[in-house]
Amino acid sequence: MRNIVNSTYVTLDGIVSQPEQWSLDYFDQGAGAYALDKLRAADALLMGRVTYTGFAEAWSARSGDEFSDTMNRIPKHVASRTLVNPTWNNTEVLDGELVDAVRGLKDGDGGDILMYGYGPVAQQLVAHGLLDHLSLWIHPVLLGTAGSSVFAPGVAGRFGTVTTRRFDSGVVVLELTDPVTT
Questions:
Q1: Which positions of the chain have pLDDT values less than 70?
Q2: How far apart, in Å, are the Cα atoms of 144 and each of 12, 108, 141, 153, 169?
Q3: Segments making up each domain of the chain, as ranges
Q4: Which end of the chain is more exposed for a tag (fewer CB within 10 A), N or C?
Q5: 93, 86 contact by CB (below 8 A)
Q6: If you classify domain 4-180 with CATH, what class do you get?
Q7: DSSP structure string for 12-27
């Protein structure tokens, strides 16, 4: 069985939206190596339509380094009811209900399935006990504004193990694993 691994940038006040506007100053050599290790362990990506749209635009225009080349090569699964004919290579839109489609992906052969961002797709996976590993990259930033938050009302989940990793930039990653079903 494959694992669903989520890697999400978050501010101290829980904001996950528009990380390109507040996270880039904190991406150091250690963070780069850690991110590449996560990508190397995966053989597929899973994302919602909003993440797909931003990633397709950014990554399809890049090449020539291991991270970019892997992002462009790896199979991508998108949960969307509105996306048709995705243009980023190796992309398929999931059929049917999200939970059933993700269970099917998990039951297949292969490595980790990597997700970036913590929006409605990740929230549903947590609610159904399908997210195996959640890495919250906590940035030393307070936005003080409204936005998409990791603290979504009505989404509950428990993890049995928490470990931490700290980078020289001040970013701390909380590694949450072993989801507990209640």
A1: 146-147, 149-156, 181-182
A2: 10, 42, 9, 18, 21
A3: 4-180
A4: C
A5: yes
A6: alpha beta
A7: TT-B-S-GGGTSGGG-
Considering only the C-alpha atoms of the chain, give the largest distance between any 2 of them, rounded to a whole number of Å.
45
Q: Residue 37: what are its φ and ψ, rounded to 5°? A: -60, -40
Provide the 3-class DSSP secondary structure of residue 131: coil
Provide the strand spans (E) within the chain: 4-11, 42-48, 76-79, 91-93, 112-116, 133-139, 158-166, 172-180
- At residue 116, the pLDDT reads 94
CA-based torsion, 75, 60, 48, 11: positive or negative? positive
127, 157 contact by CB (below 8 A):
yes
- pTM value is 0.89
Amino acid 91 reads T
Q: Quick check: helix, strand or coil at residue 57?
A: helix
Q: How far apart are CA 156 and CA 68, in angstroms?
A: 34
Dihedral sign from CA coordinates of 150, 34, 50, 102: negative
Is residue 11 within 8 A of residue 142, CB to CB? The reply is yes
